[in-house]
C-alpha cells in the first residue's frame, strides 16, 4: 500500500486502486463523473509525489505543469499529496446568449464565453451547477466560424443539471464552465478517408461540428467508394419541427457523395 494525503489527512491506497476509489472508500467525497479519465470533472492538484503518466493524459499542458491529474485513473506507486483545484485555474464564466427547443426532449443552448477559446469541433465542456454538480456536454459549434458555443441538452428524468439548464437558467444568466476537453474531433490529415458518423438524441451535437469542419476542409473521401460520407441519426420520436428544419438546413449545403439517414424508434 501507499499513502495519499489530502487536506492534511493520510489515507491508505491499496495496490492497483485508484486515488478516487481509495478516497471514496474512506469517506472522502471527491467530485467525479465518468471514472474513466475522459471528462476531467475529478481534477485535483498534486503538491508532492510522482504521478503516473496515465493520470495526466489529455490534460492541457499548462495544467499538467501545475500538477493537475485525474484521481479516477491515478494508481500511484509511491506516496503522493494532493489538494483541491484552484477554481480560477479550471473554471471561467459564460453568458447564456440563446435557448431553443429542438425536439420534445432536446434543447439548443448557446453560450458566450468570457475568454477567447481555441478548440476543436467535437470536444466537450464541463458546466457547473450552483450546488457544485458538474456535467459534460459536447460542442456543436466550430471554432473560427461560430462566435458562440453551441450545446444540445437532453432533458433527463430527475436530471439535476439538464432540468436546471432547460427550466431555470435564463438568457443573460452566467454559468461556470471548464474546458474544452476531449480527443474526439476531425483530423485534417484524414481528408481522403470515408466518414461514418452515427448518433442518437443529443449525441448529434459533436458530429455536427465534426462534419462542418470536415466539409470546410474539403474532405473528399475515396472517390471510388459506393459511399463517401454517411450520417446516421436515430431518434425515439421524430417531429418535422425545429429539429427537422435544423437537420434539413444543414444537409442542404452538403456535397454529392454524402448520404444521411434518420431512423425513428417509437
| CATH top level label of the largest domain | Mainly Beta
Task: Report helical residue fraction.
Answer: 10-25%
Assess the beta-strand content as a share of residues.
25-35%
Structural class: alpha+beta
* Overall mean confidence score, pLDDT: 84
For this structure, the CATH topology of the largest domain is Elongation Factor Tu (Ef-tu), domain 3
Distance between the termini: 52 Å
Number of helices: 6
Report the strand count.
14
What does this 3D model show about the protein?
Helix content is 18%, strand content 32%. The protein is an alpha+beta fold and 266 residues long. It has three domains: 2-85, Ubiquitin-like (UB roll); 88-181, Translation factors (Elongation Factor Tu (Ef-tu), domain 3), CATH 2.40.30; 188-264, 3-Layer(aba) Sandwich (Rossmann fold). The strands form three sheets. It has a six-stranded antiparallel sheet. A five-stranded mixed sheet has the order 2-1-5-3-4. A hairpin with a 4-residue loop joins strand 6 and strand 7 (106-113). The longest helix is centred in the C-terminal third of the chain and has 13 residues, at 204-216. It is globular and about 60 Å long.
In short:
This protein has 266 residues and is an alpha+beta fold. Helices cover 18% and strands 32% of the residues. The strands form 3 sheets. It has a 6-stranded antiparallel sheet with strand order 9-8-11-6-7-10. Strands 2-1-5-3-4 form a 5-stranded mixed sheet.
Amino acid at each position: 500500500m501507499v499513502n495519499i494525503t489530502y487536506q492534511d489527512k493520510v489515507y491508505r491506497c491499496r495496490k492497483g486502486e485508484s486515488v478516487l476509489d481509495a478516497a471514496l472508500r474512506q469517506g472522502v467525497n471527491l467530485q467525479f463523473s465518468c471514472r474513466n479519465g475522459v471528462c476531467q470533472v475529478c481534477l485535483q492538484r498534486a503538491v508532492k509525489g510522482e504521478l503516473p503518466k496515465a493520470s495526466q493524459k489529455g490534460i492541457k499542458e499548462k495544467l499538467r505543469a501545475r500538477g493537475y491529474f485525474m484521481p479516477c485513473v491515478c494508481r500511484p506507486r509511491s506516496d503522493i499529496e494532493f489538494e483541491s483545484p484552484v477554481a480560477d485555474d479550471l473554471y471561467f464564466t459564460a453568458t447564456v446568449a440563446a435557448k431553443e427547443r429542438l425536439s420534445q426532449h432536446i434543447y439548443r443552448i448557446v453560450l458566450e464565453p468570457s475568454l477567447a477559446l481555441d478548440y476543436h469541433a467535437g470536444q466537450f465542456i464541463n458546466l457547473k451547477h450552483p450546488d457544485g454538480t458538474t456535467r459534460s456536454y459536447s460542442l456543436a459549434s466550430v471554432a473560427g466560424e461560430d462566435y458562440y458555443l453551441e450545446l444540445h441538452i437532453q432533458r433527463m428524468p430527475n436530471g439535476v443539471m439538464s432540468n436546471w439548464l432547460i427550466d431555470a437558467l435564463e438568457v443573460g444568466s452566467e454559468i461556470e464552465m471548464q474546458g474544452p476537453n476531449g480527443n474526439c474531433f476531425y483530423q485534417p490529415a484524414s481528408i481522403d478517408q470515408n466518414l461514418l458518423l452515427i448518433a442518437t438524441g443529443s449525441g448529434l451535437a459533436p458530429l455536427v461540428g465534426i462534419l462542418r469542419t470536415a466539409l470546410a476542409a474539403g474532405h473528399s473521401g475515396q472517390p471510388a467508394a459506393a459511399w463517401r460520407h454517411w450520417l446516421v441519426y436515430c431518434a425515439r420520436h421524430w417531429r418535422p419541427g425545429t429539429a427537422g428544419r435544423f437537420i434539413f438546413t444543414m444537409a442542404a449545403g452538403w456535397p454529392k457523395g454524402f448520404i444521411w439517414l434518420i431512423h425513428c424508434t417509437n
